[in-house]
Design goal:
Elements lengths: L2 H10 L3 H20 L4 H31 L5 H23 L5 H33 L1 H22 L1
Length: 160
């Protein structure tokens, strides 16, 4: 996650994009913590937290933000690219679910997930969010903020 892209979005709006950037930072912190954990049962608990954070974040984006962007010609490509990336992330999460947290395969797959997340976050914060904000405008970004927060809470309830 580059510092510049965080600043670009964070300074531009406190709306939906500011919220999503904060969620990216929270997920990155959980991932970092998980990578430093060697105990299998602690890993399992931390994985459950990270998994819930990632899935609720992605699903709320897919249900609230990206349909709005698909409806605007200048950001339709962002929506398509995001959907593909989200499918890859979700598939990797489900692969991790099937592996033993004590195994080297699990550790390797977690590294893969980390790389996918880093690329995804850099793309969203560096390109997608600034373009989306330009297309939607500040007012719409503010309106989407409350909707995406409510959706994430709802999804967390579904997944728990």
């Amino acid at each position: 996650m580059s510092h510049h892209s965080l600043e670009t979005v964070g300074a531009t709006t406190n709306g939906v994009f500011g919220t999503l950037v904060k969620q990216h930072a929270e997920a990155a912190a959980l991932l970092s913590q998980l990578k430093q954990t060697s105990d299998a049962s602690s890993r399992l608990q931390q994985w459950a937290k990270l998994r819930l954070e990632l899935l609720s974040h992605e699903k709320s984006e897919i249900r609230i933000l990206y349909p709005e962007l698909r409806g605007i010609e200048s950001t339709r490509d962002i929506s398509d690219a995001h959907d593909e990336e989200a499918q890859t992330l979700e598939a990797t999460i489900h692969q991790l679910d099937k592996l033993d947290t004590a195994s080297s395969e699990w550790t390797a797959k977690l590294e893969t997930l980390g790389r996918l997340l880093q690329k995804h976050v850099q793309e969203e914060e560096g390109e997608f969010f600034p373009r989306a904000l330009a297309a939607l405008g500040e007012d719409e970004a503010q309106k989407l903020d409350a909707r995406i927060i409510a959706e994430k809470t709802s999804v967390m309830g579904e997944l728990a």
